[in-house]
Amino acid sequence: MTIIMKHNLFITSIIVLLLSLSFTASAQESVYYNEPGQTYRQAMELFNQKAYGPAGKLFEEYLQQKTNNNLYIENADYYKLVCAVEMKDSDALPLAIEFGKKYPESAHIESVFFEMGKLYFYKKKYRPALNAFQQVKPSKLAPTDQAEYYYKRGYCLLKTNKPDKAIADFEKVINTNSNFAAPATYYYAHINYLKHRYDEALQAFKKVENNRRFSKYIPDYLIHIYFEKEEYQKVIDQGEKYYRKAPAKSKGEIARLMANSYYELKNYDKAHDYFLIYERSTRSLGPEENYKIGVVKYKAGEYNAAIGNFQKATKVRAEIAQSAWYYLGFCYLNTSQDKFARDAFLKASQMSGNEEIKTDALFNYAKATIQTGGDPYNDEIGILENFIHDNPASPRLNEAYDLLVQLFLTSKNYQAALESIDKSGKPGKRLQGVYQDLAYSKGVELFRRSDFKGAIRFFEKATKYPLDKSLYAQTLFWEGDAYYQLHKFQSAAKYYKRFMKQRSAVQSNLYPTALYNLGYCAFNQKDYATASGYFKRFIKYNKASDRLITDARLRLADTYYIQKEYQQALKLYSKVSGANAQDADYALYQEASCYGSQGNFNKKIEIMNRFVRRYRHSPLYTDVLYEIGSTYLVLHDQRHAITSFDKIVKERPKSAYAIKALTKTGLLYYNNNQYDQAIKVFKLVIEKYPASSEATEALNSLKNIYTETGHVDKYFAYAKGLDFVQVSTSEQDSLTFTMGENYYINGNCNKAIEALTKYVNQFPKGGFVLKSYYYVADCFEKQNDKNMALTYYEKILTFPDNEYTVKALLISARIEFDNKNFEKSLTYYSQLLERAETKSIRLESLDGMMRSAFYTGKNQIAADAAHKLLKTDKVSKDQIVFAHYIIAKTAYGSGNYNEANRQFAITDKLSSGERGAESKYYQALIAFNNNNDKNAEELIYQLSDQYTDFEYWIAKGFILLADIYLKRDNSFQAEQTLKSIINNYSGEDLKKVAREKLKKIENAKPASNGRKGAENE
């Protein structure tokens, strides 16, 4: 309603009032034409001409003139307000408020509140505008004003979040002929759209789709409405027309609707194009849209690109998530990420939703598991067995059985697989073959870990279904070898012989080893004739390594030597010593012994002197020197005998032969009447090796010398100063000891311990104390009372080196090591190494030093011992593995990562046990720290495939794998990997680590804002 129309309405009301009040009318008329009235009249004329600026000024001028006509003053205030409103003056609102206060009963009050509402509306102050409009009775407004009133009040209600009331006001306007009908219709449609009343909204939008003001917004709404009504073809028709001319900010949303519509109509190529447009336009894709985008990318062969979308789609309702995991599996397969595929298919198979997808995902999981060699954190066999059990009528049952067989073949969890086949009752031929293969493989695995008893159990299982004859033969061999390692030579020989009877045995590379080991089985049972037969056959077979052939020649020679076939023995010993092969020192020693056994002592000495020149560092060196001296004695060449014995004392003073050499030297001087030299030597024996049997023997010889020379007083004077003997009680000493010794010799350890401990208590410095300690220690050891044995062996170690020192050190070291007193075992093994006179003692000393030092944190000592051990002959596989492992750990601890990596690789290659698992992990860690992530990842998967029994190291590896994924910005796989540890690892230690890492990943994720629909104004 225009201001002129409002003015006419007001004049009409005034005329009615004047007709009823004639006096007032005449008064008003006179006023109207006086000077102030003239100003008022001019103002009204300008007002009626819509010259609101000048009119307003004249109304203000009129009001400044002093007049007492209240009605004209009120009218002037009102028209001044109207002029200010029309001119949108800043003082319009204060004028309206002032008018309401000044003339609360004015006939203009409805119009004033209406104008106030419009003023607030213009300033977009919708709440105060609404309050003003609420003061107006619309029935008192002209019809045209009513349309404006209802539209603007409705809009204020909409803006103050009262859409239900707003729509009622808009509805009163939409069918009028006013200028407010079109916007009212638009907002009426808009509210219906928001309320999901799409038919009403569509009808209303159609009415204003050609309106110049709203036409640009309508297509957006229409597309959304058609989409919500699932009229996808209409969405596409409308969208294709609108997309190009749509504003840039709307294109992404239109592309979304069109992409989804094409998707629903299965036009995936077009859906792909529009989804890519939409994807580029937003940062907040929802999970379901990510799923659909993943599908169209997958169908377009864009597998890598689809992976990210499917990953984000896994966190929505079950059916979509299941399908997303299923598609993810195929995307991973098509991008050669088989392990990820395996995990994705498993996820899909575990979710409710589509049963067909669930089943197919399970079968694809099984196939991917076979391809990757197993699943470290899930029982793939059990999962498939459950399917078979739960779905006996499934059309895919045969396929399930085929996959189960393949899983058995590739599974490293042999025991579970075997138990599963055992549960099936009577397995068919195919499963029997699988059973044989799995049992054999498990036996070999345990054998490599030195669990020989466990290996035998599985080798026995492997012979249950001997379908594969070649495998059956190998099983017999390895079962024999397991018994051999346990020193059960009779059982070992039984299985070796059964192996050799198999047709495939002769062509097997195990055949010569069986001959070789059969030779040893007989040799260790002292069946030397049988042993020689096998060793001969082994040597003739000539398909073994030079090292083994050399060893077989030596053992064959030993059998001849033991059977006194010296010429035969000589030929073999000479062949080995002449070739300077391994154990050539032993061969040369035995060659000399053969000549000695035949009475050719000069030849014996000649060869032994050659040994002394050639093998100064051999463990047999002191044996040879002593044997040379002893042989000279046989030849009555005392001078050379003494020279040889003296060489031992000077060069190997800690050798057990040193005391024997001194004693024999003393006896030689004594027998040659060289008393002064004899006395000197005997006293050296007594003082250097007190309480030894040699010291007692030396004392007796000393007594004889002094007696023969008439100096008994000198003997008593000397003997009185000795702690280990009391001359006056020597006979009682001897008798008491002899009683205990007899018990020991006869095997009555309880009586021996009682008698000998009584002897030691009675004669604490007696001549047989040392020997008594040894007998008691040995008895306690035989009774398996290790700690008491240790007590007495340690007593022996308080004496100077003697004939029992080496054994006392050896047994003490073993017991302390078993008791985990590694500091003490290290001390004993170190001392033993200094006194080692055989290769076996030297080898055990180095091994014990290496392990004891390692367990006490003395890594460099451990590494030094390990290096020496690796250069020693006849080192066991377990010792080699531990040596490389210790060198690796020492290098890693000192920051020498290249050497550590090399040594860990060797350990990993040689070991199938926990050392190998740990070494594989450290190789991966070193690769990761060197930014070689690809290699680190490969090593981690090798760890999970090759070391299935070592859950701790597999879990450590997978935590490292999560770090690799994070490094690649693949937080999705990092999360899944950590969750697999949290859900499946049995220990709490690494679960805690995994939880902490997962929490950090989740906290680092940006929040999603969600998507907004079409809500244009």
State the separation between the terminal residues, measured CA to CA: 25 Å
Helix content: over 70%
Structural class: mainly alpha
The CATH topology of the domain at 506-726 is Serine Threonine Protein Phosphatase 5, Tetratricopeptide repeat
Residues in β-strands, percent: under 5%
How many E-type strands?
0
Low confidence ranges: 1-33, 1008-1017
Reading off the top of the CATH hierarchy, the class of the domain at 506-726 is best stated as Mainly Alpha
> Mind describing the biggest β-sheet?
none
Kindly describe this structure.
The radius of gyration is 54 Å and the shape is elongated. Helices cover 75% and strands 0% of the residues. Helix 32 packs antiparallel against helix 33 and helix 45 packs antiparallel against helix 46. It is built from 55 helices and no strands. Among the domains are: 141 residues, Tetratricopeptide repeat domain (Serine Threonine Protein Phosphatase 5, Tetratricopeptide repeat, Alpha Horseshoe); 74 residues, Serine Threonine Protein Phosphatase 5, Tetratricopeptide repeat; 74 residues, Tetratricopeptide repeat domain (Serine Threonine Protein Phosphatase 5, Tetratricopeptide repeat, Alpha Horseshoe); 221 residues, Tetratricopeptide repeat domain (Serine Threonine Protein Phosphatase 5, Tetratricopeptide repeat); 106 residues, Alpha Horseshoe (Serine Threonine Protein Phosphatase 5, Tetratricopeptide repeat), CATH 1.25.40. With 1017 residues, the protein is mostly helical. The N terminus and C terminus are likely disordered. The two termini are 25 Å apart.
